[in-house]
Amino acid sequence: MKGNTVPVLVLVGEYDLALTEEVMRATWQAWYPNCRIVTLRGSGHYPPHETPVAFATEAEAFLRV
């Protein structure tokens, strides 16, 4: 799968101490060159529950492209 050009969106919680933006760059972005990483402000490990509007907004914008 390395080098797969499928567009990927990774949403990271600003306060997630385990799955940080840095970790996502080293993992997801290393495998998927078209990976877009967005940090959701005010969220921890569960962005869909903690910041649902921001989560949905980013997901919808990504799917529109």
TrEMBL record:
Keywords: Hydrolase. InterPro entries: AB_hydrolase_fold. GO terms for molecular function: hydrolase activity. This is Alpha/beta hydrolase.
